[in-house]
Each structure stands twice: as C-alpha cells, then as structure tokens.
Design a protein that fits this description.
alpha/beta; 2-enoyl-CoA Hydratase, Chain A, domain 1; globular; single chain; 2 domains; eight-stranded mixed sheet
C-alpha cells in the first residue's frame, strides 16, 4: 500500500508539473502572437517628424523575428535589435521623406562590429546630402559611439557625462597555465606560423608572428577610426592621435576645448533645440518615430520586377548540419545557395559573410555550391566585420569580393586540437583505462592518453591536405599561384585595405555596393532583393532550443563578462574535425 501511494503521488506531481509547463508554454505563445501583431503594425509618419535613431541596441546582420526577444530565459532577453541593412535602407528612405525633418542620434555603446559601424556611419553621411541635419546627444560616448556621433551636425554631451577617447587595444587570454594545473594537455596539429588560434592553449604569451599581425590589424582598424572622425570634425588625424595617446579628454569640458563636441547640454536643452529644428514651439511635443518603427514601414524596392538578386546571409560559426540564424550550418546554407542557383528568376547572387570560420569540411561543402553557382550566374561576395579562415573559404570562389577598410579577413590556415586528459584522469582522479583493439590505430582519437608519433603523423598529414585544398581553392578563385597564396596565408590575418592590396579582395565597398555590382554584372536595369535562407520560425526555435536557451541564460548570469572565455574553452574542447577558424574573438570595447 505504501508503494501504491508513492507511485500515485509521483504521478499526481508529474501531472501538475506538466500542466504548469503547458500553461506557461500557452502563455508564451499568446504573448508571441500579440507581440507579432504589434510588430507588424505600420506607423504613420506625420509632418515635421524627428527620426529617433537609438543605436544602443543589437545591430545584427538581419532583423530577427522578435516574438520572444524580450522574454527572459525563453527568448534572448537582449531587448531591441535591428538588421544593419534594414537600418541603412530606412536612412536612405528618410533622406527623401518630406515628413522627416532631422535625425536625433542617441548612442552610448552600440552592439556592432567595426565594419558594420562604418556601414551605418557612411549611411548617415549620405543622409546629410539631403541638407537635413543630425543632432547627436549622449550622457556617455564610448569610442564606437563617438565614431558614429562625430558625423552629426551638432554633437552634444551631458555636462556631467564622459567621452571615451583612449585608442585601441587587443588583449588575449592564455589558458596554458590553468590547463596544466588541472592536468590537461592540448595536443596541437596546425599549418601556418600565423595560425594563432591554438596559442592560448600552448603558450603563456603571444608569439612574435602573432604580435606582428595583431599590431598590424589593430593599427589598421585604428587608422580607419581616426580618419573618419578627422574628416567629420575637421580635426587633424595627428591631433586626434595625440588626444588619445596623452589621454587629453578627461572631462566633458576637455571634449569642448578640443572641439570633439559642440557643447554641453542637458536632455531638456537638446529637446528644445530639436523642436526648433523640426518647427515646433517650445511648449509643443516633439513628433518622433523610432528607427525600428520606421524600418518596419519599409516597402520592397522594385517589388514588381521579375528579376531578382538573391542575398545569402552567412553569419556566425561554420558547422555541419542545419545551423541557426546566428550560425552557418553547411546543410542549410548550401541548400539556400542551390535554391538560388536553380531559380531562373534569380539573375545574380550576393553572398554576405560575417564569420570567423569553423569546420573546414562544412566550409568546403558551402564553397562547392558557390563554385557551381558562379558557372551559371554572377556571384559577388560582401564581407562584413569578419570573413576569416572558413569565412574566407566560403567566399573565395566569388567573381568579386567587397570588403570594408576595417573588415578582418584572410587567416588562410587550418588546425586541430586533441586534448589529452591522462594527467587529470589518472594522476589527479585515480582513473585508469584498459581494453582491447583490432589495430594499432583503432583508438587514434582517444583523449585519455597522449598521441603516439605515428598518430601525430597521420593527423598532421590530414591537416596538411586540408590546408593544401584551402590554398588551392583560394588560388583558383583569386587567379593566383598556390605559392603566392601560401606566402600570404599561413593563418595570417589582414584588414580590408591590405586584403585588397595583396589580392585577397577586389574592392573597398559597402554591402549595397556589392548588390549594385551584382546587378551590373548581370546586366539588370531593375531588380528586387530576395533573402536566403528563410529565417527560422521563432516558435519552432522555442520548441527545439528551449533547453539551450535556459542553459545559455544562466551561464551568462553566472560568468558575466567572462562568458566569452567560457565559450572559447568550450569550443576548443567540443569542436569536431579539422578547423579553419580565425585566431581571435573580436570584441568591441
């Protein structure tokens, strides 16, 4: 009888828990449905409207489906986000919209890569050609925020605020000492002296090769940053360098003294000035529309055209399988490219790459589809913040490659990491292993012992083969010799300006420049854009990825700013197969 009641109780508890979960899921779906209706609602833009450009949000490659964005744990919990090209198209439309009088740019710490920021900055410069004004205001400007704000006709700072202007730095974290303490050895197989993705696991500081390339690309990024501000603010680049080098901007008044900002104002004073700009009386309310609302009103250009240019978005780590909207699954992306290739209405393809690489095999699968597509229609590649290693691999076969001056690219090299846990398992935990095998290499990838000389040779040969295939693909795509590609490869990372000089890219240009070039090469007078792959339905994503979302949510809560280090360690341990991956995780700071 006791057992009977125990099972009954367990069943009742299970039913109650299941019911609660079903109710929660039902509530989430209802909230999502209501949110979707709200997202789809068009906003009427009245005359004398100020476009409120809030860039303190996540600026992604594509505007995501937003149904669960603001739901903690279940959704990203990351707040508002917008695709950079939707933002740029909105600015282009606002330029000729008689109802938009001016832009109020509010930005403190934009969540975007440096090449993406340049795309937005250039769009703001283009907006000013309409003779409409931009006013920028913030309580705090980070360097990236100021890079955008410096475009404005008037740049204001809160009297008690701060403007960060200190120069760029790059800091790497090395795990070797920590791994030794816990008894884990990283067995490295690689090709290329510059392929430094493995260095944190085997070194305690940067190698000379790595220091050389990091110095070069950080300097290149900084040069683009200073040139943009110098041009907008009419301050010499040498003066800007001196301001940062000597830390001259220590107070709000310093920013005024050195003409970095036009004045110190409180929010109410800024609003009064915006009222004047938009023809409002001092006691009237401003009429505003947010960039998110305005972008949602965007109608497809040339929607009646029969000609199409397919834009393939390849964003995130490259893996096998389907991937997600934030990662490049070889199956999903190659299927999208194949669909665009076989669609007669699609006259050209633009491959938009923002990836530091990943699986070499998955990269090759995607590369093959680009090669096949190029045989039947123009293929233009547009590289975003980063298109390195596997990210470069998938785009190297394009007819033409566009980069921004501050795009990180190249890193033509491969590596493999085979962890050896013997010291941890045996000497520290007391675990021992024994068994039988049918051949000497049957357990070649075992992680409870070190590699033998024969096993290391086999893996090195495999890595060499992948590297040879990599430089062959690049040489064929770029019409260069293998020897030349090898000389600029070896894992070397380049910025966009240098990539054009050495032939890894063709032109400095924006995403829109790449689209225009695709249309021109396909001899199209009009066309409409179609995006691939189709965005993943958020409800489907919720049902499939709820467990992962919960895990990531709590990991971020636990690790805070160190979450990136956790991800790096996890990738190193769990990545399968030979990797074509960039040596660094780029983080704006």
């Amino acid at each position: 009888m006791k057992e009977f009641f125990k099972y009954v109780f367990a069943t009742v508890v299970g039913i109650i828990i299941s019911t609660v979960l079903i109710v929660i899921l039902f509530f989430v779906i209802i909230v999502a449905a209501v949110s979707a209706i709200d997202d789809d609602k068009k906003v009427d833009v009245a005359s004398n409207t100020v476009l409120y450009l809030n860039l303190d949000q996540s600026i992604k490659e594509r505007t995501p489906n937003k149904r669960f964005d603001n739901l903690p744990i279940i959704g990203s919990g990351g707040g508002k986000s917008i695709g950079f090209y939707d933002l740029i198209l909105a600015l282009k439309r606002a330029k000729t919209d008689d109802n938009i009088d001016c832009i109020y740019l509010n930005v403190s710490s934009p969540d975007a890569g440096k090449a993406t920021l340049k795309e937005i900055r250039d769009a703001l410069i283009d907006f000013k050609k309409s003779r409409k004004k931009i006013l920028a205001y913030s309580e705090v400007y980070t360097q990236e925020a100021y890079y955008l704000a410096s475009v404005a006709d008037k740049v204001y700072l809160n009297p008690q605020g701060a403007l960060e202007f200190k120069g760029f730095s790059s800091q790497l974290t090395f795990f070797k000492g920590a791994m030794e303490k816990i008894g884990v050895e990283a067995q490295i197989i690689r090709v290329g002296n510059y392929k430094s993705a493995v260095e944190p696991f085997i070194n305690e500081k940067m190698s000379d090769y790595n220091r050389q390339q990091v110095t070069a690309y950080v300097g290149g990024l900084y040069n683009t940053f200073l040139e943009g501000i110098a041009d907008s603010r009419k301050i010499s680049k040498d003066s800007l360098f001196m301001f940062a080098n000597e830390y001259k901007i220590q107070s709000p008044q310093d920013a005024v003294t050195h003409k970095m900002v036009d004045g110190l104002k409180y929010k109410d004073e800024v609003l009064d000035e915006l009222k004047k700009w938009s023809g409002k009386g001092k006691k009237e309310n401003l009429t505003t529309v947010t960039i998110n609302e305005y972008a949602a009103n965007q109608e497809p250009e040339n929607s009646d055209s029969k000609n199409r240019i397919a834009v393939i978005f390849a964003n995130g780590d490259i893996t096998g399988g389907e991937g997600t909207d934030e990662s490049i699954g070889s199956e999903r992306i190659s299927r999208a490219i194949r669909k665009a290739r076989m669609d007669d209405k699609v006259k050209a393809i633009v491959l938009r790459v923002n990836s530091g690489g990943g699986s070499a095999l998955a990269s090759d699968v995607i590369w093959r589809e680009i090669v096949l597509s190029r045989k039947v229609k123009p293929v233009i590649a547009s590289f975003g913040d980063v298109a390195a290693s596997g990210g470069y691999y998938i785009g190297c076969a394009a007819d033409s490659i566009f980069v921004q001056p501050n795009t990180i690219t190249g890193s033509i090299g491969v590596f493999g990491i085979i962890p050896n846990f013997q010291n941890l398992l045996t000497n520290k935990l007391g675990l021992t292993f024994d068994g039988v095998k049918t051949g000497q290499y049957a357990d070649i990838m075992s992680v409870n012992r070190p590699l033998t000389a024969g096993e290391r040779l086999i893996i090195q040969t495999d890595v060499n083969h992948v590297y040879d295939s990599f430089i062959t693909r690049v040489a064929d795509g770029r019409k260069k010799s293998k020897a030349y590609i090898d000389s600029i490869g070896g894992g070397h990372v380049w910025i966009g300006t240098d990539a054009v000089k050495i032939g890894l890219a063709d032109r400095i240009g924006s995403f829109n420049d790449a689209i225009v070039a695709a249309g021109k090469k396909a001899k199209l007078s009009d066309y409409k854009l179609v995006e691939y792959p189709q965005k993943i339905d958020p409800i489907k994503s919720l049902l499939e990825d709820a467990t992962d979302n919960v895990r990531v949510y709590y990991a971020k809560k636990e690790f805070g700013e160190n979450f990136l280090l956790y991800q790096q360690m996890k990738k190193a341990i769990t990545n399968a197969g030979i990797q074509a991956r960039m040596p660094f995780e780029i983080k704006t700071q």
